[in-house]
């Protein structure tokens, strides 16, 4: 399974994320839940949260404990603005620079950084109750002709419904999320209402939610890659009180 290629169409890939608060790390595993996967859980990606003076970064790696940008396991990062309301996913790859005869250019591999997804959380100045509102813009779409002929693809979180008996906002996670949290979300393609069929409105591209202390599920499919889906979910772990 290529972690930077789009997920499959049809049934989503089901994964779970384990958070370690002491080391500020997050590990993504293939499987339904830790209880069902046990020791056979396959590590897909790992991330480390790094706080800087003006932003927060999540460094993403193929290895569980190696997050250096110089490592060949480092594949990209998620970077926030100062308020934690806007994020950019960078796909970092080692590439050969273009041939040049400038002094000092010895053809050594260099890091090339490209923006692949922008994430934005809406501000909540009125302090209305409910989950966070967000949307994601994908800069590059594989097989673009199959995705509404757009130059970019916008994903928006599905609006939950208020449950009178439970007195809370609810989404249908089909049993994959069991603990209420502002971090929980479902993303679907943002199309004009008059152009969406009922099937398209219910077509969840990515869903993320809590199932226990520091354990979360992540289910995703086309056109998101594992790397993109994981990075989007990581944005939910950053503190953003003005959005809640």
Describe what you observe in this structure.
The protein starts with 12 loop residues before the first strand and ends in a 9-residue tail after the last helix. β10 (161-163) and β11 form a beta hairpin. 7% of the residues lie in helices and 39% in strands. It has a single domain (23-96, 107-239), classed as Tubby Protein, Chain A. It has 3 helices and 14 strands. The strands form 2 sheets. A 12-stranded antiparallel beta barrel has the order 1-2-3-4-5-6-7-8-9-12-13-14. Strands 10-11 form a two-stranded antiparallel sheet. It is mostly beta strands.
What is the count of helical runs? 3
- What's the CATH H-level homologous superfamily? Tubby Protein, Chain A
DSSP strand tally = 14
- The CATH first-level class comes to Alpha Beta
Q: Indicate the CATH architecture.
A: Alpha-Beta Barrel
Distance between the termini: 36 Å
- Shape, principal axes of CA atoms: globular
Return residue spans where pLDDT drops below 50 for at least 5 consecutive residues. 98-104, 145-149
Q: How helix-rich are the residues, as a percent range? A: under 10%
Largest sheet: 12 strands, antiparallel, barrel
With strands numbered from the N-terminus, the spatial order across the biggest sheet is: 1-2-3-4-5-6-7-8-9-12-13-14
H-E order:
EEHEEEEEEEEEEHEEH
Number of domains: 1
Structural class: mainly beta
CATH topology: Tubby Protein, Chain A
Strand content: 35-45%
Question: Average pLDDT across residues?
Answer: 80
Over the alpha carbons, how many angstroms does the gyration radius reach? 19 Å
